[in-house]
Amino acid sequence: MSTPRALRQSLSLRAGSAAFLTFWCLLAAFPIVWIAVMSFKSPVDAFAPSAWDVITGPETRARGNGLSLIDIVVGVIVLWQTIRIAMTRLPVWVAKATPPGWIAIGWIFAALAYGLAFVVVFFGILPPVLGVINSFTGPLGAPLLGLTTEHYQAVWVENAFWQNFVNSMVVTFGVVTISLTVGTLAGYGLARSGSNLAFWLLIVALIFRALPHSVLVAGYLPWFINSAELLEPILGENAPTLYGQPLAVIAVLVSINQPFTIWMLRSFFQNIPTELDEAARVDGCTHFQAFRWVIMPVMWPGVITTGLFSFLLAYNDFLVTSLLLDAQNQTMVPAIASYFNRETTTTDQVEAVAAAVSITAPLFLLVMVFQRQIVSGLTAGAVKG
Amino acid sequence: MKFRTFAMFVGPSVFLMLLFIAAPLISVFIQSFQVTQPIVTTQEVETCTPGFLTQTCTTEIKTVPTLDENGKIVTETNWVGWGSYANVLGLDQMGTAISEGRWGDILQIDFWAALRFTLMFTVVTLPLVLGVGLAIALAVNNVSKALKGPIIFVSLLPFIITPVIGSLSIYWLFVGDGILTTTLERWLDRDLALFAQGWTIELLMYFYRVWHVAPFAFVIFYAGLQTVNQDTLESAIIDGASRFERLRFVVVPHLMPLIIFVTIIHLMDSYRVFEEIVGFRAQAHVQSLQWLTYDLLQPDDAGNRAISRASASAMLTMIGIVFLLILPLRRTWRDHKGTS
After folding, report:
1. B317: pLDDT strictly greater than 80
2. CA of B24: which chain A residue's CA is closest?
């Protein structure tokens, strides 16, 4: 369908809009791309005054860490193939290998296995192989682009960042599963009940949504620190001190997340026609049976979207985790704050940059895989008000 | 749905919210009137050091915390009324500042400085977020289909990134030897220290927040643009409306509910501004209300947390929330009465 002439835009307007968009994309990506580039360079290069030096990394190259032309070409080809296979072949494999109804779990396993295989090939097999090739190809094999992974090694291995990673995963996994289980039930109940009570519950949830988290943490802290003494009459000798417990933080984050979760899931459930569960009720199901056998099979898009946002909340949280967890249970985001205090040399700074990039990488993958769900989730909340 | 079934569906969620949101609020309210301190006794201690001829003895008065039989410090909780509030609000300093006519000094008190920044942050970023979000949505609506996916992907990055990390990534660009500082220095031919005074940090914080939230506004406005009534647009053209007039009188009114939605969400979120201060390490120059509470909750050098003052500051922060929510709540209430 061709656009009517009156709706067509003048050249200057189109050029202006394209220029603005290009500028925005640069602005949106630049800080993130830049810290990713910095994290691979030696400290001198990372904070070099000229941008070109930061990208090419002469100092890093001089120390013998670099990529040759061959490395770059092979690396790009492998990356490209990985993405292509993930887009075209992987869905077919997953569909073949998993029994119907288990598709979500099949995908989780497939994604994990695929990611692992990629890491093994890209970081385990390729470097030594390419090293051998580089050694006898002469000028083609000479390092061209300075690049070093020493900061990542320092962060993950020496500073034991992997522990923080595990803690983060425990907390996020707990928050997502519990808040979805509790939230789906509540969201369904709220969507199907037109009573005044449901309306008031939603209003109260909206107020709770606006509360600053520090207000709530101020309420938890004294109780959590003294919980061993307070709970002793009930639980006896082994009453836990809740302060520093990942489980306590999971409970807190789930609750903070509840208002948002039930609003969002409610709007998803309202889009599922009532006739569906009414038909099940006519056939003699109870509400719970209708929910289990009729609603659950069709609710996954909404649940996945809400789960994504729960994941983001738990993963990105700084305030609650930094105040309620002690050092050995610290998650990744507050753990990076410990770099501020040590950040005296430029090496420390680049290590902090590498840690920051490590935290961002999973989010990057998440947007790549779930872009459509994130967009639909954002708009679902808005359209319903 | 019968009440019993409804209660069973909603029960777990309500229980969690009561236990971890409502109960802490009550607890904070009570704590803000109490102060818990270790009981101390003053003892006269005589310490003697061997000296020539006679010992040199000094007596001094020490405050020693009382210990119970388990060796734990005994604490007592006192009712202090509005004391913690007066402390947080800095009423003494305020009194002297007002009586001496130096109104500017009020902004030296942490709470009032934080309040000023938080309100200004909220007010300044809101129109920028709405404007930038709408501009991106209009521009993306213009490009060909093949480009839309990648552009939306890139635009989502600033929104999805961990706030602390996002502000850090901007911090590293503008830090003393960061790439943008050196570039700016070369252009302006002078030394820059962007993190050495309050107003430059504030500007960077506004910039960061717009960068972070504009994608959210963009996605929502973009979805709204897909449902603009084409017939109305065409009749506007026939009536001779220019492009800007069409935007002003057709598109923006159509997007109005979405603009209100983004406004409410943004007001709630920017009133809680916190992560920027951590990322920019701005606490020496700029503080926000939520940061104030956070800071009081952190253990000081002796390991004590100022729970009482933190609670008072938290309660004062809550007053602002009430003002923020009055308008949207009134609207929801009207809608609800209209439908039922």
Report:
1. yes
2. A219
